[in-house]
Amino acid sequence: MTRRFDAVVIGAGQAGPAMAGRFAGAGKSVAVVERERVGGTCVNVGCTPTKTLVASAYAAHLARRAADYGVSAGPVGVDFAAVRARMLAIVGDKRAGLESWLAGMPTCALIRGHARFVAPHAVEVGGETLEAEQIFINVGARAAIPDFPGLDRVRVLTNTSLLDLDALPRHLVVVGGSYIGLEFAQVFRRLGAEVTVIEKAPRLVAREDPDVSEAIRAILEAEGIAVRCDAECIRFAPQGTDVEVGVDCRGGAPTVVGSHVLLAVGRKPNTDDLGLDAAGVAVDGRGFIVVDDALRTSVPHIFALGDCNGRGAFTHTAYNDYEIVAANLFDGATRKVTDRIPAYALYVDPPLGRVGLSEADAKARGHVVRVGKRPMTRVARAIEKGETQGFIKVVVDRDSDAILGAAILGVGGDEAIHGVIEAMAAGRTATDYTRVVAIHPTVSELVPTVFGALDQPC
Ligand SMILES: Cc1cc2nc3c(=O)[nH]c(=O)nc-3n(C[C@H](O)[C@H](O)[C@H](O)COP(=O)(O)OP(=O)(O)OC[C@H]3O[C@@H](n4cnc5c(N)ncnc54)[C@H](O)[C@@H]3O)c2cc1C
Ligand SMILES: NC(=O)c1ccc[n+]([C@@H]2O[C@H](COP(=O)([O-])OP(=O)(O)OC[C@H]3O[C@@H](n4cnc5c(N)ncnc54)[C@H](O)[C@@H]3O)[C@@H](O)[C@H]2O)c1
């Protein structure tokens, strides 16, 4: 059987449902094909569940520190089943909300199953062919599982299967010390597990400046997380019911034994089983769909949005991909993905808010930079809250006074960074920022001060 639509959207992640909504809102027919769960990675196994866990872990951490605030809370216990139940309830609500939103659109059909191209204008789902004028690929990514020696002899977890555990691991070994690895590492440590992080690079979150990496490492180690960097030749072997991880670091023991292992070494686009050849859609060497500045693939009526195009790996970048494509198709705009200023947060606690270039990247691109930095120990709000780890750092182009980037590692850093994001989006200079009158007492109020104290020792 063949059904015809104005548009077919493959994947109900962060861009697809919104795109379907735009078509349906314009009275056009649209099919959304989803092979797993509506809401994709973010809602089901990414942002939403992890941030509920971060919240539970924070509550446990603060309860243990209650005496610091003059509060006696008694012994702190963690009910892992209740933590999970809270997580599942919030995830379930969010997914159900999206499902009912899609179901409420009269010209939108949600079709369950795996979609595969059979021609440039046609995909097949469960024996049925769906034809459309335009096709939008929003298939996301999954955990990369490299072919480590011994992997076939042990059980390892990914961000997806870790969420299925119904008991707290005794000792979680996290391979990969970046976003996914570090968020889970701190969560499980705070919930009561022993945790070791193993990272191949010489430092954690190595795409950040060294001072950021060092501060994050210090925060995690202070909570009892063991960190092993420079780990070459990861290999696995069973040891009873435990798993031995060979690490070959420059220093320290050559193996770490844990009850559970999480692999968090990057993501792989879900493009290998999509029949892209049948449509003539080109991918790069890592399987990401090649797109132009307007997110068109090598086939003009097919667009790729979200993690599968390699232009971003965040929920807000996937959604922004939708905004760009929709504005260009429906509103006559000429928006481009290269206009996007990179911004993101790492949800360790305290969080790292980031925008634009790091100091190292700015220098590598030839900027002569001025840097402003202030530790959280000198931020009134952080002192009052009793959470003084981290710092505010801004990077400015010496010649143009342009704001190049910022990092706020500290309490409220994920929110306070938005002042800088918005200033950069509005094209404001560092001098402009020094004239902002911010609310006292906030972490944000120190950002103008930092811009006004460039090149000064912190
Ligand atoms: C543990 C974790 C935590 C994260 N935390 C954050 C965070 O705090 N903030 C943030 O911004 N980002 C976070 N991310 C990243 C974020 O989840 C992704 O960037 C985002 O979900 C990408 O959205 P997407 O629409 O591109 O793809 P996805 O959300 O992955 O959706 C793709 C959908 O396509 C479906 N699909 C795939 N192939 C097919 C097919 N052939 N046929 C039919 N359906 C198909 C999949 O089942 C899936 O539902 C996190 C990711 C992880 C793993
Ligand atoms: N807060 C957020 O917004 C958030 C949270 C989680 C995930 N995400 C998204 O998910 C994506 C994937 O996250 P990720 O942390 O899996 O990937 P990543 O690419 O950010 O980091 C992978 C880490 O694993 C290390 N690594 C690679 N091979 C290794 C090996 N053999 N042994 C030890 N370490 C090794 C890398 O050096 C790197 O530090 C991120 O790029 C991010 O966009 C975002």
TrEMBL record:
Domain of life: Bacteria
Pyridine nucleotide-disulphide oxidoreductase dimerisation domain sequence ranges: 344-448
GO molecular function, one term: flavin adenine dinucleotide binding
Disulfide cross-links: C42-C47
A Pfam match: Pyr_redox_2
Span of domain FAD/NAD(P)-binding: 6-320
Residues at which FAD binds: K51, D307
Keywords: FAD, Flavoprotein, NAD, Nucleotide-binding, Pyruvate
InterPro entries, sorted: FAD/NAD-bd_sf, FAD/NAD-binding_dom, FAD/NAD-linked_Rdtase_dimer_sf, Pyr_nuc-diS_OxRdtase, Pyr_nucl-diS_OxRdtase_dimer
Protein name as it appears in the record: Pyruvate/2-oxoglutarate dehydrogenase complex dihydrolipoamide dehydrogenase (E3) component
Needed co-factor(s): FAD
Binding site for NAD(+): G176, G177, S178, Y179, I180, G181, L182, E183, E199, G266
Protein family according to the UniProt entry: Belongs to the class-I pyridine nucleotide-disulfide oxidoreductase family.
Catalytic center residues: H440
Cofactor descriptive note: Binds 1 FAD per subunit.
